[in-house]
Amino acid sequence: MDRVAEILAEASAEVVEPRFRALAAGEVMEKAPGEVVTIADREAEVIIERRLRELLPVPVVGEEAVAADPGLARALHSEPAVWLVDPVDGTANFIAGRPEYAVMASLVRSGETVAAWIWQPETATSYTAELGSGAWRNGHRLTRTPAPGDPADWRGSVKSRFLSPDRRRTLEANAAAFGEISEGRHAAGIEYPDIAEGALDFILYWRTLPWDHAPGSLLINEAGGLSARLDGSRYRPEAPGGQDGLLVAADPEAWERTRDILIGR
Question: What is the span of the domain harbouring residue 18?
């Protein structure tokens, strides 16, 4: 666990942090319509992939490698163990000079996330989680307190970018039952820890790319919260294009109440 955390911090220090607010012309590229990548993303992934494979020689499913060859993501289903890597989560924030970005990795065995790491460079904060062993922030155990009793006091986020217009209108109308709804911070590696730390009580995601959600889902579940599909099944990482919809909440009761309010049973 400690060595992977070191690998993420080392790669960040070598090629990510030096480019924060210092990206040169030509170091930001479009990899797909509406999707951008930087030289920092690509170089960090290469470093992390090499060092993780030295630690455990299994396939590495990295966000940027999959962007170039989508077939690589099949390893999540075909291989007994896989590393997942998001070299710069929150790339748009990183490009804009906002500090809400992270470097993330997770280990998946037989389709289940068994270990997770989130490194937040700008605050030097490391989050780790191990299946059945708990969640941690900089070596201190994380335990999420339950959400307040009244949903009118809850703070949450509904990610509506990938929703149909009809579903978006319904969810946004239902969300008025909660105390505060924000757009979130546009980086899963910041938002999941926000729930674990009590800054948010729930988030509804729709598109669930595995490198974005595997680390945080394990962190939340090990801290006492719940990250689950809308049918109640626990989150398991899938190749892009798989199941949509993921609700993350401070505790199982809050998860149930949030789902009932937002979408019904």
Answer: 2-142
